[in-house]
Design goal:
The longest helix has 30 residues, at 636-665. The chain is of the alpha/beta class. The protein has an eight-stranded mixed sheet with strand order 14-24-23-16-17-18-19-15. An eight-stranded parallel beta barrel has the order 26-27-28-29-30-31-32-33, surrounded by eight helices. A five-stranded antiparallel sheet has the order 1-2-7-5-6. Bound molecules: phosphoenolpyruvate (PEP) and magnesium ion. Phosphoenolpyruvate binds at residues 565, 567, 794, 815-818, 881-882.
């Protein structure tokens, strides 16, 4: 609202202020007006607007805008008449609280001043009103300190020193043990502090107090804390410009046994259960609760102690909820049998409680389904889908890494995948700890409860694989030095050894020593209901990235409507398959390669059969092989080391053989018993020789295959076109399995996807293989199985040629992992480790583009590809299967682009389902 709209008026009583105008009145002030407007019993008061704040700050002489204090006086008179008390009166004083409040809450910006209006005279009035001199002196000394600090800028330490001196003299340790006369002395000493520090006594005139407090609140808007806070959280003037000042009559809950104070939630914030939840204390003030002097009682006890007020409180509870249509967290005070509501705000709840209240409040007719969905932030659901650390644990954090895959797990440290697999199989709970992981570690992932790496970002191999399996992962914990040979992880001066226990929290990136208990996730009935509503509201479908029958099954449980990406190279990582894959890669001839492929065919078919069956009735997008080959091969260094060891072994074996021969010459062989065993005999040396030859061949081949930039090298469709027999085998496995499933009456929907495509010619070529295989399948089964054929869009040129590609493809799937790398020319592993943190800190890039789609760059290319692709083929199906497909804001962007589906790792499917619903509902609201 512009200042002109307020007609030069600066002050608004709670009865007249617009409860919706947070910009003018601040959040707190607007809410107090709103509560007053709907007839709740709020202690009377008024709001000095943010317009007044801005005019004050614009003035150079430090004076309040002309006329402001006159308006304040008029409003104080209204409060006096409504409370039957008088501001500054020695007999029946009106005391007020003074609080700041801008349009958005800025915690800690300024402290509240309570009991403003106290001075040596009104203090006597307060003693008379409350009949409690100790309380009155206590209130007075608190007021002097707060006013001194907030309004006059006196340091707390000056007051604290005096308080300590009185405590020592009185022989007490805690404030609450101070007697009335001690508190009186504290107040007197505090008055002296003010005079000494400011050169003036505490203002005794109550209006002078109010004026100074108002200025102090206004000034706090430009205080360092507030300015930093606004900068940090991007609070610009269009969001909040200046603070309001709320002046409200004090009410006291310590005026006898018909008085009380308490806090309550309209529902249990821990579980969301529809029960009144709160605590109160009779004849007490808020301070007593905070100081823990007395233990508060549950609200239910009030039914017996003050039945009428309990009924009123119940009424207040239901009025608050039906008005705000949200669970409320409110404060109340009962002063001499009259119930006041001091404050209310939306209750902060955990995800489980949010879900439950959404579903129950909809059933009660308080919320519509749309509102029930929109009030929950999609990312919040993550909490519900993974084990969490028991909140009561107190363990200190041992190391900090990146929160790469949510969930928490504890177990014993293991430094290599083989050992993890062995121990895992034996039933041990293990955490795989590596510097970084590689595809050949995959069996270790399966056997581990969690993965910890000292290098790599949130999209490192470890992170991506762990997420796809729904296992916790902390990556890039750079404070840890992992030494696989010594089998130690060194963190500062702490040395952890294999077999020691640790716990990782992939939601925070924290690493702890020992095993901390975890709480299992529950996919509650309410969550199922809510997500069903989400699916009905959404337009985008949500698929999962799943590479194995197990992960497909899990994805289905999370509500995946299909599989958007099955990375076939991941299927080859199992320990018994890797040697065959190596043979395939290293084959010197087509026949040798075909031999390896013949062995892989039944293995692939077995996997497809299980996945297709699990996902019957739903699409399964199988991506043809896309391995950056280096990921499957040992490095030349590793091979050279193995060769060195083999040579060493050969020399040793020969040496032992010679030793036996000399013994025999000396007829001492009887001492040695039998002939030497393998590998110390001739046969052994021969075997070692063979191994050396094989490794040397491998080293030669590895050198040949070595690429300068493997991620931009011989991978994806490029590999498929150089070795057509690989893609043909895979296509055959898919189509034969589909035909066999159909024969069994199963509705299977395979979609064949080609990776790394940059030109339509590549697709045309793969289509030729497809046709060839299809003919064979038709001949063998007597029919053509149903399938779709499409392409990944993960190369910049593919976006530029989308119109042409659409002629050859029935669907597109954006591979935003590679596309982002290509658009930025960032290698994702290096970027996340090396410079992205600095870019974030310096605000060069606000968001990690590997987590959420970079709309301005990558997003624009996507838009072009969608537009041109659909120009050629209006019914072209388009989805996304990069990591960003599970990121809520990116999902909203995908919805806006008009994609048909998003595909993400299984455990993120529920989050994506809710985000997809938000996208559709927000769009509807915007219409
Ligand atoms: C991608 O590039 O986004 C993608 C899904 O492929 P990958 O991560 O397997 O390279
Ligand atoms: Mg890719």
């Amino acid at each position: 609202m512009k200042s002109s709209a307020t007609d030069g008026k600066y002050v608004f009583s709670f009865r007249e202020g617009d409860g919706k105008n947070r910009i003018l009145l601040g959040g707190k002030g607007a809410n107090l007006c709103e509560m007053t407007r709907i007839g709740l019993n709020v202690p009377p008061g008024f709001v000095i607007s943010t317009v007044a704040c801005r005019s004050y700050l614009a003035r150079k002489d430090g004076s309040l805008p002309p006329g402001l204090m006159d308006e304040v006086k008029t409003h104080i008179r209204e409060v006096e008449s409504r409370t039957a008390r008088e501001f500054g009166s020695a007999k029946n004083p009106l005391l007020v609280s003074v609080r700041s409040g801008s349009a958005v809450s800025m915690p800690g910006m300024m402290d509240t001043i309570l009991n403003l209006g106290l001075n040596t005279e009104t203090l006597q009035g307060l003693i008379r009103q409350t009949g409690n001199p100790r309380f009155a002196y206590d209130s007075y000394r608190r007021f002097i300190q707060l006013f001194g600090k907030v309004a006059l800028g006196v340091e707390d330490s000056k007051f604290d020193a005096q308080l300590e001196a009185v405590k020592t003299r009185a022989g007490v340790r805690s404030d609450v043990d101070l007697r009335q006369e001690d508190l009186k002395e504290v107040a007197e000493r505090f008055l002296t502090v003010i005079e000494k520090e400011t050169g003036n006594p505490l203002p005794m005139n109550v209006y002078d107090q109010l004026e100074a407090a108002t200025k102090a609140v206004f000034n706090s808007w430009m205080g360092r804390r507030a300015v930093d806070y606004r900068r940090e959280f991007g609070i610009t003037p269009d969001i909040a410009d200046g603070t309001a000042v709320n002046v409200q009559a004090m009410v006291f809950g310590n005026m006898g046994n018909d008085s009380a104070t308490g806090v309550a939630f309209t529902r249990d914030p821990g579980t969301g259960e529809n029960v009144f939840f709160g605590e109160y204390l009779t004849n007490a003030q808020g301070e007593d609760v905070v100081a823990g002097i007395r233990t508060p009682k549950p609200i239910a006890d009030m039914a017996a102690e003050m039945p009428d007020l309990h009924r009123q409180l119940e009424e207040l509870r239901s009025r608050l909820e039906s008005h705000y249509r949200e669970v409320q967290d409110f404060e109340f005070t009962i002063e001499k049998g009259i119930l006041y509501c001091l404050q209310t705000r939306n209750g902060k709840m955990n995800a489980a409680a949010m879900v439950r209240t959404s579903v129950e409040m909809t059933a009660q007719g308080i919320l519509s389904r749309e509102e029930a969905l929109l009030r929950i932030k999609p990312s919040m659901l993550e909490q519900l889908l993974h084990p969490r650390l028991d909140a009561s644990h107190k363990a200190p954090v041992l190391a900090q890494g990146l929160p790469a895959s949510p969930g928490a797990a504890g177990g014993l440290i293991v430094f290599d995948a083989d050992r993890a697999a062995n121990l895992g199989k034996a039933g041990e709970k293990v955490i795989l700890v590596r510097e970084e992981t590689k595809p050949e570690d995959i069996h270790g992932f399966f056997a581990s409860r969690g993965i910890l790496t000292s290098r790599g970002g949130k999209t490192s191999h470890a992170a991506v694989v762990a997420r796809s399996m729904g296992k916790p992962c902390v990556s890039g914990a750079e404070g840890i030095t992992v030494d696989v040979h010594l089998r130690t992880a060194v963190i500062g001066d702490k040395i952890l050894r294999e077999g020691d226990y640790i716990t990782i929290d992939g939601g925070t990136g924290h690493v702890y020593e020992g095993v901390i208990p975890t709480v299992d996730p529950v996919f509650s009935a309410e969550l199922k209901t809510l997500l069903q509503w989400a699916d009905e509201a959404a337009r985008l479908k949500v698929y999962a990235n799943a590479d194995t029958p197990d992960t497909a099954l899990k994805a289905l449980e999370y509500g995946a409507m299909g599989i958007g990406l099955c990375r076939t190279e991941r299927m080859f990582n199992a320990l018994e398959r890797l040697p065959i894959v190596l043979d395939m890669i290293l084959a010197e001839t087509v026949t040798a390669r075909q031999n390896a492929l013949n062995k892989l065919l039944p293995i692939q078919k077995g996997d497809f059969k299980e996945i297709f069956t699990t996902m019957a009735g739903k699409p399964v997008t199988v991506r043809l092989l896309d391995p950056p080959i280096h990921e499957f091969l040992p490095t030349p260094d590793e091979l050279r080391e193995e060769l060195r060891q083999l040579e060493h072994l050969k020399t040793t074996a020969q040496g032992v053989g010679r030793l036996y021969a000399s013994f025999r010459l000396l007829h001492a062989d009887a001492l040695l018993g039998e002939q030497p065993h393998l590998p110390f005999d001739d046969r052994g040396v021969e075997l070692i020789d063979q191994a050396i030859i094989k490794k040397e061949l491998m080293l030669k081949k590895v050198r040949e295959l070595q690429e300068v930039n493997p991620m931009l090298g011989h991978r994806g469709v490029r590999l498929g076109l150089t070795y057509p027999e690989i893609y043909k085998m895979q296509i055959r496995a898919i189509l034969e399995t589909a035909a066999e499933c159909r024969k069994e009456g199963l509705d299977v929907r395979p979609e064949i996807m080609v990776p790394q495509v940059c030109t339509a010619q590549e697709l045309k070529q793969v289509k030729k293989y497809l046709e060839e295989v299809l003919e064979g399948v038709e001949a063998a089964y007597g029919f053509r199985p149903d399938f779709k054929f499409g392409t990944m869009i993960e190369v910049v040129r593919a976006c530029m040629r989308a119109g042409e590609l659409a002629r050859e493809a029935q669907f597109f799937s954006f591979g935003t992992n590679d596309l982002t790398q290509a658009v930025f020319s960032f290698s994702r592993e290096d970027a996340e480790n090396k410079f992205l943190p600095l870019y974030a800190e310096k605000n060069i890039l606000q968001e990690n583009p590997f987590e959420g789609i970079d709309r301005r760059g990558v997003g624009r290319l996507m838009r072009i590809a969608v537009e041109w692709g659909r120009e050629t083929k209006p019914d072209l199906e388009i989805g996304i299967c990069g990591e960003q497909g599970g990121h809520p804001e990116s999902i909203i962007f995908c919805h806006k682009l008009g994609l048909d589906y998003v595909s993400c790792s299984g455990p993120r499917v529920p989050v994506a389902r809710l985000a997809a619903a938000h996208a559709a509902l927000e769009e509807k609201k915007g219409d």
